[in-house]
Description:
Layout: E1 3-12, E2 15-25, E3 30-34, H1 41-49, E4 56-61, E5 64-68, E6 71-72, E7 80-83, H2 95-100, H3 109-119, H4 135-148, E8 153-157, H5 165-182, E9 185-190, H6 193-199, E10 202-207, E11 210-215, H7 217-222, H8 227-230, E12 237-244, E13 247-250, E14 253-256, E15 263-269, E16 274-278, E17 284-291, E18 296-301, E19 308-312, E20 321-326, E21 331-335
Parallel strand pairs: 3-9, 3-10, 7-8, 8-9
Antiparallel strand pairs: 1-2, 1-4, 4-5, 5-6, 10-11, 12-13, 12-15, 13-14, 15-21, 16-20, 17-18, 17-20, 18-19
Helix pairs in contact: 3-4
Amino acid sequence: MSLELDRISHRYGAVAAVRSASLAVEAGEIVCLFGPSGCGKTTLLRIAAGLEALQEGEIRLAGATLAQPGDEVPPEQRPIGFVFQDYVLFPHLTVEKNIAFGLKGVGDAKARVAAQLAAFGIEGFARRYPHELSGGQQQRVALARAVARQPKALLLDEPFASIDVALRRRLREELRRVLKDQKAAVLLVTHDADEALALGDRIALMREGEIVEIATPEDLFERPRTPDGAGLFPGSQTLMGEVRGGVFYCALGEIETPGLAPGSARAILRADCLTTSCDECAPFRVVDVRFAGPAWRVRVEQESGAPLWVTMQAPPSVGDGVSISADWSKAFVFAG
């Protein structure tokens, strides 16, 4: 009972917002669609929901075609729940009436509302109005309303966008638990890497309208196929260089890269890839020092090349020389 987006393309005038994007989300699975703002994530989600007309490709749910160019099931008739960034709760309706919206004519509507109030832990807010709720409580109401219809698929567009960072972290684990309990195919849009890693069974990486890689967090960590995948993890950074004769040359040395064509290349360095020592003769100079607990986060630069961040146990002074060595087993080199 999967949600399938098959070769979806979409243009706004001369701008290609989505280009031949394909992915499938299985029932009970959470797939996070990750990428920078403007890469086409929300457009793809709106197309899946029926809020944008399908221009190219096909959308299927549980084997049934929901949309193809010129022939689409209206959004209100699709067994899909949609949660917007700002939740779009009806301000004049109480929590329980917001959740009941869309259940008119459903015989067990009251039971469904009661079940969702309990599932999301908001029974005590049933008679309150949206303006009387916190951001996290409003999010739960929006989710409860979306799943009360018992959709086969659930689409979430930046569900934590309106919530402060501290609360966002606390809610991630709870949201994942609730979403998994629903057994629906869940597609969640985010531009927050930590969020994608915390919530996704798989992560679909999107760039400039294209899905460039889809994999589990483990596979992205161990076997990334793109710079986007390798750089997803906290503390990763990019070091530019050049491939000549099957060897990658950069400011930190060189590494054999059989199979890579000559030309510009980049190494994605994981957080624990670099080791440092103070050395006044070294080419790198300290330009910024920040305490990151329990160690110090230090920005270093050399006369030519981009800056790097390194971790040091004792704080150096701005202007000190630093020697850096790389553990190339914790780096991934890509062309371009």
